[in-house]
SapC protein (Aquisalimonas asiatica), 259 residues
Amino acid sequence: MLLYNRIAPLNKDKHRDLRLKSADGEANFAAETHYVPLAATEFFQACRDYPVIFAGGADGGPVALLGLRESENLFIADNGAWAANTYVPAFVRRYPFVLAKGDERDSFTVCFDESYPAFNTDDGEALFDENGEYTPFLNRIIDFLQRYRAEMLQTATFVERLNELELLIERDLEVTTPAGARFALRGFRVVDEDRLRKLADGKVGELLREGYMGWIYAHLASLNNLGRLPARLPRSADLDDTRPDGEGADTETEPDVAD
């Protein structure tokens, strides 16, 4: 699963003494992730900083594009923190916790990434109290996870609606740096503006009432951020990707999204 290396269910007996040390904004766990899933409710904030595009395939949901090459996140600063003054997607903020489907219908189990080094038994916020009950800290996390899940279900309905109206089309996205390096992003989808303009008035009204039209325009506006990503590339990487004759070397990226 994207970001997570060793997911385990949280158990009050086995993990009663477990604590989570404050990471002070450290985000190196996402340093090799060039995209993350987005909830549609995040579009208005995310569109200021990232290209918001859709993964390929009918089930492909929206993602924030974080880099131009696989395993490269251009929004991780040198100190390991997320880039200052940029929106941090909820998918990143929920780490190292996640909800997994339980054995019973509509039940969920709180899980965590055992490999995350901030977990320990000596320092940080306790997850369980002396009676084995959730601490207020863990309850706040669970509340966030539940809200995130609800928003992702809402997002899935939004994507279904876009597919139903055949508004999403596959498009290859290309970016060229000032030094001439070319980056090709294959297999992503975007809303086709021509199809959107040709929708019947009744369908447009439905999208407005459903709250989807604002999300669509936030997505379209975010595509301008694609041309801003090269400015975040390390200067050495830009030069390495440029051929001596001035023709840029192509770097291709294809989506493989897990939520």
